Amino acid sequence: MNSSTLRRCLTGALVAGLFPVVFNAVAQEAPAAQEKGPAAADAMLHALTVEYPTPYRAMSAEEVKTVLDRVYTYLERTTPAELIHKSDGTPITNLTTADPDAVFKPGDFRLTSYEWGVTYLGMLAAGAATGDARYTDYTIKRHQLLADLTKLYNPVVQADLKNSHAPHKSFLNPHALDDAGALCHSFLKAKLGGSKVDYTQMIGICGNFVTKKEYRLPDGTFARGGADGNGGFKARPLKNTVWLDDMFMGVPTIAYLGAVNGDSKHFDDAARQVLQFSKRMFNPQLGIYMHGYVEGQADHPEMHWARANGWAVMSMVEVLEVLPKNHKMRDAIVKQLRAHIKGLSTYQTRDGFWHQLIDRPDTYQETSATAIYTYAIARAVNRGYVEAQAYGPMANLAWNATASKVLANGQIEGICVGTGMAFDPAFYSYRPTSVKAAHGYGPALLAGAEIIEMNKKFKFGLNDSGLMYQGLR
């Protein structure tokens, strides 16, 4: 072996030792230089170690579960499925009478909020993805408590809607989709998944509200408005305002009602709503949705709030999960989903997040929206709606960004608090964030669960230093 060949062999061995991940990747690497002789000083600069703020790789299932376990442990500890006497704080264990003094034992989050409907969905998904029954049991235990309370208190509430008391009165006498829709979605999904809880009465209450009582525009699209009971009209914030949030708060529930009771009118209703929301609120040039739309208003200042876009993309993947394969509007929804995911892909930040106002990089990087996008994009990859080659790496980066915000104690940072609707950027840009904002916990669980499923099915690794699809497992 001459000295030049020996030098090249030693150089190759040294580089392989310094950069084992690059050289062990299954996919093809950059071709070796064809020139002979001593290597130039810049020959291996492309393989220098890069310090990424967000880990740049696909996490293993075990690593993802470690993050999810922290979230689970925190929520199990701080959201007790227990009742106490409001007057003295003593526990209530006998659910045989509708005690007007009964309340849920206080925790960090409410068991009957729409955010917790999403959390119940996330726990079910995490249980299925990890095989850890603790996640599933979290949801079923609280569903069972709500079912028991509904049986006990519903007759009392219906007899006196104004003056009666129940620990979950907002569910028994809902006034908005937020009171019923996401919770109902979780009941329906658990029922389809084989839960032994008797959901009949609860689904009757929330399903009836979502399908028959919530206000709609003349074409059937959910809106916020209607008579105020005093001869006037509700304005939230203006008459006949369509909130993009409601594309998730009610539409998947309708589709899942169709899956449970077999009534095709629910599939038709849900599919129409997805397309009608999109016709009004999706900007095809930008590939993202506006947050609010006022029916009859000439101009609609477009505030592209991140979490609302999350509710939209999540709504589509959830509706498609149960919409029959031969449904006449299914292809249109898949097309709309692809357009939205393609649009979102152009706004992901270099650290894997999306901004509070998606197209305004001067706003902060927001965690709950990033988690929802992670879930929806990974689900779309897993179901074949979009290509794993194009969107799998993005979903992995988004999960790593989300995971970076999960603290050691299981709390999650960077979650925008509850947010109304406005037509100016200041309102959204300065919304506070808090670890006590419930909106990010369910999405984080859903995101981690779907990433586990995606990375079980597809392999992603480094190719020429870039995270790329490397085929089926």
TrEMBL record:
Keywords: Glycosidase, Hydrolase, Signal
Biological process, per Gene Ontology: carbohydrate metabolic process
Transmembrane segments: none
Biological classification of the source: Bacteria, Pseudomonadati, Pseudomonadota, Betaproteobacteria, Burkholderiales
EC number(s) from the headed UniProt entry: 3.2.1.172
Protein name per UniProt: Unsaturated rhamnogalacturonyl hydrolase YteR
Organism: Duganella phyllosphaerae
EC main group: hydrolase
GO MF assignments: unsaturated rhamnogalacturonyl hydrolase activity
Signal sequence region: 1-27
Domain of life: Bacteria
InterPro entries listed in its UniProt record: 6-hairpin_glycosidase_sf, 6hp_glycosidase-like_sf, Glyco_hydro_88, PolySaccharide_Degr_Enz
